[in-house]
């Protein structure tokens, strides 16, 4: 039991760091990818509403096209790209149309004549649901000894076009095998070193 708890703790610490380069000579076994997808789709959402869709991409041409539509977050949306999306597998979380949800009892509460406050609430629930899903993927992948990296700085309309989908993409998440010859912060293509930051969350007990 102690070994298992140590594994969880180690995975938690590892999972907070974004991987920027990948070993694309290796592949993620199907059973591992299936488990990662399960973590993204079977995690909690408010009233089990399907707020998002999941696109699982391993086609390198599609992944590279999407990568080209990412950007460093600044006023001009210019500069370096975000190489975390170049992983062995790319997960794209997109906004679902709630009328597509099977949970009609709850969906009916937010469809139809929604007020502006209702729309704000649904949008908050969407982002909360995707955040929880990404967290589940992050920890599950880390426990399977994979690396991850999230990206929200991208041209959503272009990514939508590349995916040929009616759904608006919200979050890109790379999952894969690190390039063990590089520092995790080195850009996959340019080798530029990307900054890293530490955090300290204040915790109180009552």
Write the layout of secondary structure elements.
Blueprint: H1 2-15, H2 30-41, E1 52-57, H3 60-67, E2 89-95, H4 104-107, H5 116-143, E3 147-151, H6 156-163, E4 168-176
Antiparallel strand pairs: 1-2, 2-4, 3-4
What does this structure look like?
There is one protein chain. This protein has 206 residues and is α+β, with helices and mostly antiparallel strands. It has one domain: NADH Oxidase, CATH 3.40.109. Helix content is 36%, strand content 13%. It has helices at 2-15, 30-41, 60-67, 104-107, 116-143, 156-163; strands spanning 52-57, 89-95, 147-151, 168-176. It has a four-stranded antiparallel sheet with strand order 1-2-4-3, sandwiched between helices. Helix 1 (2-15) crosses helix 5 (116-143) and helix 2 (30-41) runs antiparallel to helix 5. The chain is globular and about 55 Å long. The mean pLDDT is 92.
Percent helix: 25-40%
Catalogue the unreliable spans: none
Outline the biggest β-sheet: 4 strands, antiparallel
Here the CATH topology equals NADH Oxidase
Q: Count of DSSP E strands?
A: 4
Shape: globular
The CATH class, by name, is Alpha Beta
Rg estimate, integer Å: 18 Å
Number of domains: 1
| Count of alpha/pi helices | 6
| Category from helices, strands and their pairing | alpha+beta
The CATH superfamily label reads NADH Oxidase
Measured between the Cα atoms of the first and last residue, the distance is 28 Å
Tags for this entry?
globular; 206 residues; single chain; 4 strands; 4-stranded antiparallel beta sheet; NADH Oxidase; alpha+beta
